[in-house]
Specification:
The chain is of the alpha/beta class and 401 residues long. It has four domains: 4-17 and 170-313, Molybdenum Cofactor Biosythetic Enzyme, Chain A; 20-42 and 143-168, Alpha-Beta Complex (Molybdopterin biosynthesis moea protein, domain 2), CATH 3.90.105; 48-130, Molybdopterin biosynthesis moea protein, domain 3 (Molybdopterin biosynthesis moeA protein, domain 3); 322-399, MoeA, C-terminal, domain IV (Beta-clip, Beta Barrel). Helices cover 18% and strands 29% of the residues. The protein has seven helices and 26 strands. It binds ligand LQZAQKY5 and molybdate ion. Molybdate ion binds at residues 272-275, 291, 293, 296, 363. Molybdate ion is lined by residues 272-275, 291, 293, 296, 363. Keywords: Magnesium, Metal-binding, Molybdenum, Molybdenum cofactor biosynthesis, Transferase. Catalyzes the insertion of molybdate into adenylated molybdopterin with the concomitant release of AMP. One of its GO terms (biological process) is Mo-molybdopterin cofactor biosynthetic process.
């Protein structure tokens, strides 16, 4: 059995980011930028007013003075003349500041009358002027490659005058649930049947990570069905299977894929839940074989499928997003398997936030999993801990799952 860390390393080392495609700006949200976005203009393009008021010479705009208003500069209609001594030009937010002016007299600090305006508050030089290039200059890098685009990044790219964005293709992940006993949700349930929760749970995880899930029809415990699914997966960036990973005589994933070109990298890791994890390749297509127990499938999804999706999406490698938390209950010592306990984030009697592991940690219990806020990490051979100790946890909300 290899360690969780080694397994992650081997998975990530064998994956490469998906190639790039060009998408319209509006479809760029949540995609990963493949090349930097560079400003195609300077912003603001000229010195502009930040307020509605009057463009003035600060030296003349002292309290009590009256200035002659010689024109107007609404946004989009620059005033072509110059602001001379004792003069003012009516100006609106966003409009270029005319030649000669070095400050804006706020409308609220002025009284207009006839062809003049009275200054009610002395204006400081430079006041309410946004200088050209204050935000960015043509040629500046606005968004770095390898960043998942937020709504704010889309706004910045738009301001930089980009209608299209180069992004990595979203990884397509084929998901195959195996097992004679497994039926799709909503179908008639034969005696001994189990409804497949794993495929749709993993599809939601893939979506949350920015990938495109392709849920394949369920394959029974026979070589033909699993092999046919393998062929369907060749157009995807990865095949993820659930079930059939362990040592039972019906645990067929590896033997069924072998005639289709499957080569194993590793099988079994020192982890709980999720010991019988499979990693290999079907010719060019990476294969991640997750255990059938639903909690094991999801926890392995968090630990291995999630980082794999990040790498395929073009994001830089990042460690598991662990945060430190105060333990809300005593824990026994751990054995040699790294453990990920289902846990809730709660508030204790003193008002402190604490992490409390669920009392039942069975890897078949989906209700406990769905009620958990976090996975509490216990390293191999971790000593017994008392409530109040500090422990590493993965907040499931950080992953959007
Ligand atoms: N003798 C041993 N038995 C088992 C071992 C072991 O080391 N020695 N490992 C156990 C562990 S740990 C796990 S985890 C499971 C995983 O086994 P498989 O990956 O082969 O999974 P299956 O046997 O096919 O199914 C296990 C369990 O999960 C249910 N299942 C399967 N697929 C789905 C699905 N799509 N949705 C919901 N539930 C599913 C299935 O009905 C079984 O109840 O093996 C232990 N055994
Ligand atoms: O890990 Mo099994 O994955 O312990 O239930």
């Amino acid at each position: 059995m290899i360690s969780v860390e080694e397994a992650r390393g081997r998975i990530l080392d064998s994956l490469a980011p998906c190639g790039a495609e060009t998408v319209p700006l509006a479809e760029g949200w949540n995609r990963v930028l493949a090349r930097p976005v560079t400003a195609r203009l300077t912003q603001p393009p000229a010195d502009v007013s930040a307020m509605d008021g009057y463009a003035v010479r600060a030296a003349d705009a002292v309290e009590g003075a009256t200035l002659a208003v010689t024109g107007a500069a609404p946004a989009g209609h620059p005033f072509r003349g110059e602001v001379g001594p004792g003069e003012a030009v009516r100006i609106f937010t966003g409009a270029p500041v005319p030649e000669g002016a070095d400050a804006i007299l706020l409308q609220e600090d002025a009284t207009a009358g006839g062809n003049g305006v009275r200054v009610n508050e002395t204006v400081r030089p430079d006041r309410w002027i946004r200088r050209a290039g204050m935000d960015f200059r043509a040629g500046d890098t606005l968004v770095e490659a390898g960043r998942r685009l937020s709504a704010r990044d889309i706004g910045l790219a738009a301001a930089g005058n980009h209608a299209w964005l180069p992004v990595h293709r979203a990884p397509r992940i084929a998901i195959l649930a195996t097992g004679d006993e497994i039926v799709l949700p909503g179908e008639p349930l034969p005696a001994g049947g189990i409804v497949s929760s794993n495929a749709h749970m993993l599809a939601a995880l893939v979506r949350a990570a920015g990938g495109v899930p392709v849920v394949l029809p369920i394959a029974g415990d026979n070589h033909e069905a699993i092999g046919a699914a393998a062929e369907a997966a060749r157009r995807c960036e990865m095949l993820v299977t659930t079930g059939g990973a362990s040592v039972g005589e019906h645990d067929l994933v590896q033997s069924a894929l072998a005639p289709h070109g499957f080569t194993l990298d590793f099988w079994k890791i020192a982890m709980r839940p999720g010991k019988p994890l499979i990693w290999g390749r079907l010719d060019g297509t990476p294969v991640l074989g997750l255990p059938g127990n639903p909690v094991s499938a999801l926890v392995c999804g968090v630990l291995f499928l999630w980082p794999a999706l990040m790498k395929l999406s073009g994001l830089p490698a990042a460690p598991l997003p662990l945060r430190m938390a105060r333990l809300g209950a005593d824990l026994p010592e751990n054995d040699r398997r790294e453990e990920y306990m289902r846990a809730r984030l709660e508030t204790d009697a003193e008002g402190r936030s604490v992490v409390v592991p669920a009392t039942r940690q069975d890897s078949a219990m989906l209700r406990v999993l769905a009620g958990a806020d976090a996975l509490l990490q216990r390293p191999p051979h971790a000593p017994a801990l008392q409530a109040g100790a500090t422990v590493p946890v993965v907040h499931l909300a950080d992953l959007g799952i």
